Amino acid sequence: MKNIGLLPRLILGIVFGVLVGLLLPEWTGRLLYTFSSLFGEMLGYVVPLIIIGFIAPGIAELGEKAGKLLAGTAGLAYLSTLAAGIVAFFVSLAIIPMIIQGGGASGGETAGLQPFLSLDIPPIMGVMTALVTAFIFGLGINKLKQEQTRSNLFGFMEEFRAIVIMVIKNVIIPFLPFHIAGIFANMAASGEAFRTLTVFGQVFLLIILMHFGYLLVLYTLAATRAGKNPLKALRNMIPAYTTALGTMSSAATIPITLRSAKANGVSERIAEFVVPLSATIHLAGSTITLVACSVAVIVMGAGSPDFGSFLPFIMLLGVTMIAAPGVPGGAVVAALGLMSSILGFSEAQLGLMLALYMAQDGFGTACNVTGDGAIALIIDTFSDQQEAKSISVEVNEI
Q1: Where are the domains of the chain?
Q2: 64-78 pLDDT, tens per residue?
Q3: DSSP state letters, 360-385
């Protein structure tokens, strides 16, 4: 089973869950749904730990970077992520209700099956408390690292992050197909499974089109500023896109992204700084996917997506997912708390979001890393201007 990729395992989980819910005795569906329910409780407990484990050391590490270059790259990456999420919301709001035709499904929330056993595993803190705690520790450790040659607390947070990643890789990801199977067994028993799969097939197509549209706009802006052909610049990034599609990890794709960015004429100094940093903080593709899937889940539950709720959700996504791109599926796991606390998603809806996001994780990651090349291209033009000004000042002084 380990030799099978995550996406095939998720598809097998969905198929298995639907077959159990439709064909097998009810007790088998209840048994599978019991596991899904317990797994969901464990996920809720782990989410605040994931937020702290990703964000605190991520912020602490930023202190090692160069000042103005760091600020420019981080600001541009966050602005790109924010803009992508906002546009994705309005596009999704305009198109997804037409796909779903007024809702009528609850996204797995109907009482089709009841678990044999329920456990209440409350998290040690709320999501917003975890966010504030992560910022306090991250900024504090950053300051300590600048004043001291060694920070024991930073070492602790690095080990804490390693434990969180270990839990994601060795517990959450391996058992996720069974969790999804339980959710779809419940949906099949309540008669929603096929409609949900049909709807989200169309939503995925919309998401991929939004990815391509975003990249085309971003590269048009970046290449125009750099005096290059946007289509040629995009073509040079194809190796990075296809690699990320397979690895589902921005971090694992860094060497290819670096080579592609340099092929677009980005200087070596800028590329080697901006690309690894953007792999951690630039998450436009993941944000487009999460926003579109969230809108779809709400509309399927006969709800009405509200921009007043989605704006803080989008703004916090760009921060919450810091350092998550190193782990396949890490972005959606880190975002679960925001979906619960801001959008009000139930445990079943969170499980559905996991399935939907993970099924296309490679495309979101590919969009992220391809966008990193455009960020590097833009930052390189600012760097050229700064160097030109510096040379001009030196010549005048002579």
Answers
A1: 6-386
A2: 554 567 778 888 988
A3: THHHHHHHHHHHHHHHHHHHHHHHHH
